[in-house]
Structure formats: structure tokens, C-alpha cells
Amino acid sequence: MRAELMGVERKKTEGNPQAIRVLMYHSIIKENHPAGRNPFRLPVGQFRAQLEWLDRRGFTAITFDDYRLFREGILNLPKKPVILTFDDGYQDVYENAFPLLQEYGMRAVIFVLGDRRANSNVWDVNDTTSDAPLMSDREIIEMHQAHFEIGAHSHSHVRLTEIPKEAAWKEISYSRMEIEGLLNKPVRSFAYPYGCVNEETKRMVRDAGYTIGCSAFSGPPVFGADEFEIRRSTIFNTTGTLGLGLRLLSPYQHYQWVRWRSSVLIRSNGRRAKIGVVESNA
């Protein structure tokens, strides 16, 4: 329908969505920054090296919105698509990553909080190395106008699976309305804080009007198999270009999925064992 409204005849789109790889970043800091001990905060030189590596090997950075347009038959996918995501909306992403991404002709998906009063990562209050400012409304709008995708990361960065359902629904739905009010454009992608997701949470994200839900470590190893639990490969400050390359390989995705499933089964068996002990003593 959109293609017809635009006066463009719908065509069969080309590309393999299963080839899409999704990377998860958080913070990009200056060299020798005191927060460098935090594994989620990459020095800007390391980030530049990774962009250079992706560029030299022919990867094209796309967004979830590009994937949606592919699904609608409007846009072709590149041969080697990668989606670069940044959680939390740190100001250093605007200051350090944004110029580099533009230099290499790449875009990214930035997940920000719906609570626009939040100006720092208060959820890391117990981590003295992680106190960092968040992007302002103006900076978010500027990245949006540069064709970066802005997604929601809940209203206040809480563990959605550990709060009452009514509160979780507000966190999910309010954040979409708040960011749409800022951008004056639909917000369709969501990232679960801490990767905390279950079937009920995914249902709420779907019902709130999102079309993509991003996890941190769970979800199928094949992109698109569950669009509300997109698996992402975390990039740490210990991840070199070799580690980056491994994360883009299908065997690595399946290996990580097997590890995750094994840990889930172990935890599940442990809980059942504890219940059995309680019941036997009852």
C-alpha cells in the first residue's frame, strides 16, 4: 500500500534477511577515560577500528526500519547487512560515535528512554565507573534527522519481567508515546532493558504497536525467526576485530544460542530441584 501511495509500483525485493547480523553497543568514550574499566564502554579508537573493518569487508549498516521496508516490498537488502544498535542513549554516542558513523557512511539504531527528564544513567548508581550523561532532546532529534533510527528502551530502564504487569505496560507503551512526541514520527523498535524478556513482555511490546523487540542475549540464532526477541551480539571493550568478525558468522550465532539454551535449562532444572526438596520436606 505504501509503495502504491508513493506512486511506486511494488516489486519483488531482493536480499536475504537471514544474513542480517545485529550488534549491541552501549557507550563510546574518549581514550584513557576513567570509565574504561567498564566492559560496556569502548574507546573511540577501538570503535573506529571496528567501523574500518566492517567497511573494508563490504558490510552495509542498515536499520530495523530498512528491514521493515524490505518486508513491505519497497527496499532491497544489501549483500552483507549489519545493524548497529546502541542502548541507553549515552551522550558520548552522539559526541564520539555519531561523527565516525557519518564519516564511514553508516547509520545505527539508538535506543533511548521515554522519560526525557532523565539526564544520566541512574540505574548504574552502584557502579561508580559508569556515571554518564544521556543525550538531550536536541541531540536525539539531530541524529533522527540524519536518518538514524530512534527506538524505545522503556520509560525508566527497569527490569520489565520483575515488576507488575500494569507497571511494565506503562513502561513499554508510555515510552513509545513519549519518543514519538519528541520526533513526530512513529517509533517501531524496542530494546528490553537488561535483556529481560518473556512471552508476556513480548506480547505487551507487540500490543503497544512496536514491530521489533530486541533482546541482549536470548532469542533464536537466525534473524527474523522471532521479531520480538531479536538476538544481538554484545560488543565489549575487550572485543577486537577478530572477535567482531566471529560475531558476524552463523556458527557463532548458533554456538551462542546453544550456550544460552543450556544455561536456561540448568537454571530451570535447579529451580525444579529446589521445589522438589521443599515438597519432599512438606
Quick description:
The chain is α/β, with parallel strands linked by helices and 282 residues long.
Defining traits:
single chain, 282 residues, alpha/beta, TIM Barrel, six-stranded parallel beta sheet, two-stranded parallel sheet, 9 helices, 40% helix, 13% strand, globular, disordered N terminus, disordered C terminus
What does the model show?
- With 282 residues, the chain is α/β, with parallel strands linked by helices.
- The chain has a single domain, classed as TIM Barrel (Alpha-Beta Barrel).
- The chain is 40% helix and 13% strand.
- It contains 9 helices and 10 strands.
- The strands form 3 sheets. Strands 1, 4, 5, 6, 7 and 10 form a 6-stranded parallel sheet that branches. A two-stranded parallel sheet has the order 2-3. It has a two-stranded parallel ribbon with strand order 8-9.
- α3 links the parallel β4 and β5.
- The longest helix is centred in the C-terminal third of the chain and has 32 residues.
- It starts with a helix and ends with a helix.
